[in-house]
Write a structure and sequence with these properties.
Layout (H helix, E strand, L loop, with lengths): L2 H6 L11 H17 L5 H31 L5 H4 L4 H32 L2 E4 L7 H15 L4 E5 L13 E8 L7 E6 L7 E7 L2 E6 H7 L1 H4 L7 E11 L13 H11 L5 E7 L4 H11 L6 E5 L38 H7 L2 E5 L5 H12 L3 E8 L7 H11 L3 E6 L7 H13 L3 E3 L6 E2 L3 E8 L2 E9 L11 E8 L2 H15 L11 E3 L3 H17 L5 E6 L5 H13 L2 E6 L16 E6 L4 E2 L2 E5 L6 E5 L5 H5 L1 E7 L3 H15 L5 E3 L7 E2 L9 H13 L1
Family: Belongs to the polyphosphate kinase 1 (PPK1) family.
Enzyme class: transferase
Cofactor: Mg(2+)
């Protein structure tokens, strides 16, 4: 497609940047593409529907809610949002989401049809034909569902009880002949029960019933005390504003304030109302009035089922042929988990790339530090922890062994606040020193530094990562972790922890690039260096791999580099406000996005042509929040072998022609097509590391 023709249809701002929210919705469309892709195993396709739905829930709770606040404040918000005024943007978002929801319903129908061909039937309440199923459903309802069921009868006079955020409800309408007014009720789908109920096999076939339909099957027993001739059930769901409003009460601890604010989400303003599109208009009008849904809320007609995020937990039924083949995480070449980590790191830096490598190296390092009598201090930043965290256990173990353990824990990690507060209290009780962030800044860096007594001196060891120290997400998020004993890097890391302790003092760093104080200008200089090379007759080359890019100022710098003749290749998984390939603005910028089995999460920056590269890994995306409002660490790679390893794995990703989408002004998420042999980068990366072991 000719980008120049596309650009001619856009306004001045639109022709230079893609709006952040619209770009995010296009990223989620790529997730939905995976659900539609017939080369993806069937059950995995359903799970991608779940990921798509979960992403959308979080988008409305945060991004849509933010735009809505701007509208309700009577402002246009162009400066904050870019491209569109806030009210225009709300309208565009709703239109796109309605279209995507319709597409997702068609995809689910297609998947369910293919499951039938595999002998797997997802049946509704009117499709129960076998006596053993009827008996099982009634028994399951009586024993498991009925005791957990919350049922609310509605009328005009009764104030509606609080509708739980993101819980799914069945709206019950009971009608009796001769009566003008129906009886309305709400049934809350019990979230503590699995959404999918596996029924007994019949003739070798598998049968599953969604919990909603199992309740529908038993409606007569729930509402037996009412007189009605007709009963129907339609699902609804509300999404509430999830932005935190922290009190300024100086008499309360930060944990108390945050806990109250998280609790306050339960009563926050609604921002989205999703309903079964077959619900009758009178029932819908009654609900909207009762719920106080306003014109600025997004009202989305959907399918029979909501909370489709539950599809992420669709039962596997032992059908490994309908799932991705499991790949065992690999060891790192030359390092056994039976070795002393300190001894190995003292000899040479090494790189862990999860999930291709096992996350166990991080746990092993911390556990060894917890037991080693020579280790005196452990300092670490924590952003998101697994529900059952071996990292937290190792740190508590270290404190019990008399180590001085300092944890900078970010309690405001969105949607992980409660989990982090729970671990914070537990670690504090065990003698771990906690630091709760920096005023006005989130601490998003992922770093650790350990001091060990070796003879008459303290020697530092540590690791720096692009992702969270979370054993669960490490199975599905791709992330680099550099283990090092480099004195210069670890000296800078120690300065960073001093800043956490005394953040009124801004340190200078010789090697690490630290946000918010130095990152923006450092990245500008690195881009400028490539421009200077071109102007002096050389070649300029920039390669980036990020989750998101939305800062207009840094985008303008890249446009200037492109105009000067610098070749820029970018792999951006999610939001990207930059428009590549536009003559006169960005013709030297190429951009792809990869969505596949694993979630692409590392941030990598490579400046310079082959043989003269400067390579960095980072916790930071190129978004305003990362550059200006968060503490982030970008680390140079000095070890030549590791530098080459990162370049190699970047190149594998860049050459993907199976799961790579070319991002253009058209925003059509077209798969990259070329004459090269098929290369699926995530599979090829695993093979790359497997070959290293041979």
């Amino acid at each position: 497609m000719d980008n120049r023709l596309n650009m001619a249809t856009l306004g001045a701002d639109e022709s230079r940047y893609i709006n952040r929210e619209i770009s995010w919705l296009q990223f989620n469309a790529r997730v939905l593409q995976e659900a539609a892709d017939e080369s993806v195993p069937l059950i995995e396709r359903l799970r991608f529907v779940g990921i798509f739905s979960n992403n959308l829930d979080e988008f409305f709770k945060v991004r849509y809610a933010t735009v809505k606040r701007i509208v309700e404040a009577g402002k246009k918000g162009r400066k904050a949002l870019g491209v569109y005024a806030a009210d225009e943007l709300l309208e565009k978002i709703t239109k796109i989401v309605i279209q995507q929801q319709e597409e997702s319903l068609n995809i689910i129908d297609d998947i369910l049809q293919h499951l039938k061909e595999e002998g797997i039937y997802v049946i509704k309440e009117n499709e129960v034909h076998f006596p053993e199923h009827s008996e099982y459903i009634k028994s399951f309802f009586t024993e498991k569902v009925s005791p957990a069921l919350v049922t609310i009868v509605l009328n005009d006079d009764l104030e509606l009880p609080r509708i739980q955020d993101l819980e799914a409800y069945l709206t019950i309408t009971m009608k009796k002949k001769g009566s003008k007014k129906p009886i309305y009720a709400l049934v809350e789908i019990p979230s503590e029960l699995d959404r999918f109920v596996v029924l007994p096999q019949v003739d070798g076939n598998d049968y599953i019933m969604i919990l909603d339909d199992l309740i529908r099957y038993n409606l007569e027993s729930v509402f037996s005390i009412f007189e009605y001739d007709e009963i129907s059930a339609h699902m609804i769901k509300i999404t509430r504003d999830a932005e935190l409003d922290l009190e300024s009460d100086l008499g309360k601890s930060f944990i108390e304030k945050l806990s109250k604010s998280v609790k306050g989400r339960e009563d926050a303003e609604p921002v989205r109302f999703v309903h079964d599109q077959t619900i009758d208009s009178d029932t819908l009008a009654f609900l909207l009035k009762k719920l106080g849904i306003e014109y600025t809320d997004s009202i989305i007609p959907g399918g029979r089922y909501h909370n489709r995020k539950d599809y992420m937990g669709f039962p596997s039924l032992g059908r490994n042929d309908l799932l991705y083949a499991k790949q065992k995480p690999l060891p790192i070449k030359g390092i056994s988990l039976n070795d002393s980590m300190f001894k190995k790191v003292a000899e040479k830096d090494f790189l862990q790339y999860t999930p291709y490598h096992t996350f166990a190296y991080v746990i092993k390092f911390l556990r060894e530090a917890a037991l080693d009598p020579k280790v005196k201090t452990i300092k670490i930043t924590i952003y998101r922890l697994a529900k059952l965290s071996h990292v937290a256990s190792a740190l508590i173990n270290a404190a019990k062994n008399g180590k001085e353990v300092t944890v900078q824990i970010e309690l405001r990690a969105r949607f992980d606040e409660e989990s982090n507060m729970r671990y914070a209290n537990k670690m504090q009780d065990e003698g771990v020193k906690l630091i709760f962030g920096v005023p006005g800044l989130k601490v998003h860096s992922k770093v650790c530094v350990i001091e060990r007594q070796e003879g008459s001196r303290l020697k530092r060891y540590g690791f720096i990562s692009t992702g969270n120290f979370n054993g669960m997400t490490a199975r599905i998020y791709t992330d680099y972790t550099l283990f090092t004993a480099n004195k210069q890097i670890l000296k800078d890391l120690s300065k960073l922890f001093n800043f956490f302790d005394t953040n009124y003092i801004v340190n200078t760093y010789q090697h690490l690039v630290i946000s918010p104080h130095y990152a923006r200008n450092t990245f500008y200089k690195l881009i400028e260096n490539e421009i200077k090379k071109v102007k002096s007759g050389g070649k300029g080359y920039i390669r980036l791999k990020l989750n998101s890019m939305s800062n207009y100022a840094i985008i303008d710098k890249l446009y200037a580099a492109s105009a000067a003749g610098v070749q820029i290749d970018m792999i951006i998984r999610g939001v990207c406000c930059l428009i590549p390939g536009v003559e006169g603005m960005s013709e030297n910028i190429r951009l792809i996005s990869i969505v596949d089995k694993f979630l692409e999460h590392p941030r990598v920056m490579i400046f310079g042509e082959e043989g003269d590269e400067k390579v960095f890994i980072s916790s930071s995306d190129w978004m305003t929040r990362n550059l200006d409002n968060r503490v982030e660490v970008t680390c140079p790679i000095y070890d030549e072998d590791i530098k080459q390893e990162i370049i190699d794995t970047y190149t594998i990703c860049w050459n993907d022609n199976v799961k790579a989408r070319e991002i253009t002004a058209a925003q059509d998420n077209a798969y990259r097509k070329n004459d090269e042999a098929p290369l699926r980068s995530q599979f090829a990366t695993y093979d790359y590391y497997l070959n290293k072991l041979n």
